[in-house]
Specification:
The protein has 18 helices and 20 strands. With 531 residues, the protein is of the alpha+beta class.
């Protein structure tokens, strides 16, 4: 089974499984197709995290491929430009939006290197076969879907550069995403991007390393140098992914395997540890008390993330304390006493959800869970290459001396937490989501829906959600107002979203003996598909 927010990516992954590929082949194929058919959510110039489980080969490993800040970065270079911080901690608004769009917003991309490394270590099919479906989609063009168009045309009020302005930032973007009369392409229109097809065709022929040290690297560096970019040839050539064992947590007899910092898995474990101290199953789902308790756990994990979690190569993260049952017990006592956590923010903005996810389980029991992204897309497309670069510099803290502060060669914290759940040594669930800083909050609630409330996979990802990662509690419009009225009477600030589905777009595969049961979040037009 393959599950993802894009049907084309799911279908491509399933066909790879039918052709004899394994979960890694299918996952990398799906990821490459996602970068073509949903090119602002992810791409070969993005970042992310993946987890691979291959029980027959004794493999259980994570690859972290976060973008790294260029060597030219300095901790204090933007501290006099601060206008505000996004309300949920996704990033900072700077004067001139220099960190948000354009050449200085780009971190060193890691996605393509991670795809290539995972395939080389664990894949079965030739690299050219894995990349061919993405080439075909790029050659034939892409139909603009409602989900894609909605992102292009939505102003979230954050103060960031509008998505449509990102698309028109470069000459190539104007050609790809707009009609000749200057109007943005609409639902049902075709995106023609032969440059992307040519780039992928070259990568299929000569390998991913060309992006980092070869002909494509030269094109990238020439463009950066000509337009004041921070990214250099040495930045590309010296980029390395991080290979680690999963970070483990326990919850009511289940074992959770997730990613390590600078990824968001540590938040997921901390929240589960806190909530294990409560009898959630005895509470009505999404009742006043349920939302209060879970939101307070979310807020405490958010505060710890802001204060302590970043790139472990640059800061000492109190990993054992934040993931310990004893520390969780202290936090749970505060919640039981009715103490309200205070998340501090500069400004009152929103976040980006420009990310996507893919999950795979194959017939041999191998599994892949990968969340990958462009962050806020930079808007930059090098002429002749076709793909857009990430804009991940926007999430670094421009204030020196903090966990997320700027530094050369540093990765910024990301909430991505591709995860797997085990019981009695057997794989039970492959799960993950896009959704910015709401990702751990969404994944958490789906886990609770399955473990505490015995929901089916699809019901678990479809149930109404909320998020406590800011000074307020954000709720979707399907949570009744009589519930939030009571929370407001207790002193909580509530922000009701117009959307009925929000806070992470969760996709999962439930493994029930020999049966695979998929769930695709209805917020997108994704699906789960078996071979």
């Amino acid at each position: 089974m393959v599950v993802a927010p894009q049907p084309e990516a799911v279908e491509s992954g399933v066909l790879v499984l039918r052709e004899g590929g394994n979960a890694v082949d299918a996952g990398i194929t799906s990821a490459l197709v996602q970068g073509v058919v949903d090119p602002q959510m992810t791409g070969i110039a993005g970042f992310g995290s993946l987890q691979v489980y291959m029980p027959g080969a004794g493999v259980h490993e994570c690859i972290d491929f976060h973008g790294k800040s260029p060597a030219a970065v300095r901790p204090e270079m933007w501290q006099d430009r601060i206008e505000g911080e996004t309300r949920d901690g996704f990033g900072f608004i700077l004067n001139g939006r220099i960190n948000d769009v354009g050449y200085q917003s780009i971190t060193v991309p890691g996605s393509l290197k991670a795809y290539s490394e995972a395939h080389a270590k664990w894949g079965r099919l030739p690299w050219a076969d894995v990349i061919t479906p993405a080439i075909r989609h790029a050659e034939h063009g892409v139909t603009v879907r409602p989900h894609m168009y909605n992102w292009w045309t939505t102003n979230d009020g954050s103060g960031r550069v509008l998505p449509s302005d990102r698309l028109s930032h470069s000459t190539a973007g104007q050609r790809i995403y707009f009609h000749k009369d200057g109007t943005l392409k609409r639902v049902g229109d075709r995106l023609e991007n032969p440059d992307m097809a040519n780039t992928l065709r070259r990568l299929a022929k000569v390998g991913a390393e060309d992006f980092y040290t070869g002909e494509i690297a030269c094109q990238i560096v020439d463009d950066m140098q000509a337009n004041g970019g921070l990214l250099s040839a040495n930045d590309l050539a010296s980029y390395r992914t991080s290979k680690t064992k999963p970070l483990w947590g326990k919850y009511h007899g289940f074992r959770l395997a997730t990613n390590r910092p600078p990824g968001g898995g540590i938040m997921l474990i901390e929240m589960l540890n806190v909530l294990e101290q409560f009898d959630l199953s005895a509470l009505e789902h999404n009742s006043v008390e349920y939302i209060r308790v879970v939101s307070e756990a979310m807020k405490r994990a958010t505060i710890d993330k802001d204060n302590y979690i970043g790139d472990p190569e640059f800061i000492d993260i109190p990993l054992e304390r934040l993931t310990s049952k004893a520390y969780a017990g202290e936090l749970a006592k505060e919640i039981k006493r009715g103490e309200m956590a205070k998340v501090e923010r500069i400004g009152h903005s929103l976040e980006s959800k420009d990310t996507t996810h893919v999950g795979v389980v194959d017939a041999e029991g191998n599994a892949l869970s990968m969340t990958h992204s462009l962050g806020m897309p930079s808007g930059v497309i090098t002429e002749g290459l076709g793909f857009m670069y990430n804009g991940c510099m926007g999430v670094f803290d421009p204030r020196p001396g903090r966990a997320g502060s700027l530094a050369p060669g540093k990765s910024r914290f990301s909430s991505v937490c591709p995860s797997m759940v085990f019981k009695e040594g057997e794989l039970r669930l492959v799960i993950g989501a896009p959704g910015g800083t709401h990702i751990p909050m969404g994944v958490l609630q789906v886990l609770l829906n399955i473990i505490n409330f015995n929901m089916s996979m699809q019901d678990a990802v479809s149930a109404p959600r909320f998020s406590g990662n800011s000074p307020l509690i954000d709720v979707v419009n399907r949570i009744p107002k009589f519930v939030t009225d009571e929370l407001e009477s207790q002193g909580y600030g509530i922000r009701r979203w117009a959307q009925s589905y929000a806070f992470g777009w969760i996709h999962g595969i439930l493994v029930d003996k020999d049966c695979l049961i998929g769930g695709a979040d209805p917020v997108s037009d994704g699906m789960a598909l078996c071979t």
